[in-house]
């Protein structure tokens, strides 16, 4: 049996420990784990605090790189920020403070901190990171277009932001093979060595991270190269006193100057010749030399020559005399009138063809 003095001693010890327990420092017993969310979601962040009935509990959005920009959101069960997307709940039984953020936006990503203030200069804290999935956006420091010359080395750059970090790949228009080989190249920088005119065109930088439809940028690659001239035929024939068109095709960039030469002299528009030049597509130009009412001296070799800053190229075309009239360009009424006035022997054939064509269009009764 304990005597009275011993009982008083035990009571004093129990009273002491109860007093110590009542004065125990606050403890954050639970904090939400890292959250990865989508734009538009609603998110609950929870913080459970023990022994904090006499201490303020705050939710704060932290910017460690710039503490002066910290955003104090709530104190205990009261909101500090007047934003309808925020709400705060306190469950007394579990000692849990729940911060809810609705309609998540990109700017909501960051570190949220539960704080228990235990003095003017001291506090206990716990952090939770919130990551927001963001569709890719191709950065402004990515390549937009390039103009280079044959033989050069060119690097096309493409960078993208977003979360998760986007994967960048390159493709070519119409799924053509890339100069590096294959239809797809993965990486931020596509490097093309010893570039040729066949490498010109549109390249697609594609950034994808599984959020949304991804992002794409068209990168135009233009390659300057010396002209290359081709002809449909190396030789044309036509009868005397009839017109004939000589044609050549030029591939070049930048656009070339095109001239026609005969017997060492450059030809110009006059009563004997008419020159036409017209672009058919980027880097492609056609030229036609019409030889008008051919005379004997106009038979011979003609040269189509194209020139730009990177060089020149030329092709020869022969114009020879024939007995037959070639149509086109010697077609229609001009052929009929010429046949009557200049080639009497052709009149019956041409006249018969003309009459036959008239009867084919007359209505029958």
From TrEMBL:
A Pfam cross-reference name: V-set
Zinc among keywords: no
SUPFAM superfamilies per record: Immunoglobulin (SSF48726)
Entry keywords, A to Z: Disulfide bond, Immunoglobulin domain, Repeat, Signal
InterPro entries linked: Ig-like_dom, Ig-like_dom_sf, Ig-like_fold, Ig_I-set, Ig_sub, Ig_sub2, Ig_V-set, Neural/epithelial_adhesion
Signal peptide (residue range): 1-22
Gene3D superfamilies: Immunoglobulins
Signal recorded as keyword: yes
Ranges of residues in domain Ig-like: 26-125, 136-222, 227-318
Protein name (database record): Lachesin-like isoform X2
């Amino acid at each position: 049996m304990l005597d009275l003095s011993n009982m008083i001693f035990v009571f004093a010890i129990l009273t002491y420990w109860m007093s110590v327990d009542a004065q125990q420092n606050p403890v954050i017993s639970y904090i939400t784990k890292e959250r990865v969310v989508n734009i538009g979601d609603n998110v609950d962040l929870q913080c459970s605090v023990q022994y904090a009935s006499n201490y303020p509990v705050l939710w704060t959005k932290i910017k460690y790189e710039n503490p002066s920009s910290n955003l104090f959101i709530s104190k205990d069960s009261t909101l500090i920020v007047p934003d309808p997307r925020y709400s705060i709940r306190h469950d007394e039984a579990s000692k849990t403070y729940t911060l809810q953020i609705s309609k998540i936006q990109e700017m909501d990503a960051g570190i949220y901190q539960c704080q228990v203030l235990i003095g003017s200069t001291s506090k206990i804290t716990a952090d939770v990171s919130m990551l927001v999935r963001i569709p890719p956006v191709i950065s402004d420091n990515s390549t937009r277009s390039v103009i280079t010359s044959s033989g050069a080395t060119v690097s096309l750059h493409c960078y993208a932001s977003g979360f998760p970090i986007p994967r960048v790949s390159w493709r070519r228009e119409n799924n053509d093979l890339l100069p590096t080989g294959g239809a797809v190249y993965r990486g931020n920088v596509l490097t093309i060595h010893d570039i040729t005119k066949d490498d010109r065109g549109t390249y697609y930088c594609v950034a994808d991270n599984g959020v949304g439809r991804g992002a794409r940028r068209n990168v135009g690659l233009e390659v300057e190269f010396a002209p290359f001239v081709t002809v449909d035929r190396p030789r044309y024939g036509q009868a005397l006193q009839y017109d004939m068109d000589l044609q050549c095709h030029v591939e070049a960039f930048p656009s070339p100057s095109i001239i026609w030469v005969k017997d060492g002299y450059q030809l110009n528009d006059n009563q004997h010749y008419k020159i036409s030049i017209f672009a058919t597509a980027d880097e492609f130009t056609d030229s036609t030399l019409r030889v008008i009412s051919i005379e004997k001296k106009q038979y011979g070799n003609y040269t189509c020559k194209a020139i730009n800053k990177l060089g020149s190229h030329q092709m020869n075309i022969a114009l020879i005399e024939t007995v037959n009239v070639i149509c086109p360009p010697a077609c229609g009424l001009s052929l009929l009138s010429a046949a009557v006035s200049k080639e009497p022997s052709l009149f019956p054939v041409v006249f018969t063809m003309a009459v036959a064509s008239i009867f084919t269009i007359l209505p029958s009764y």
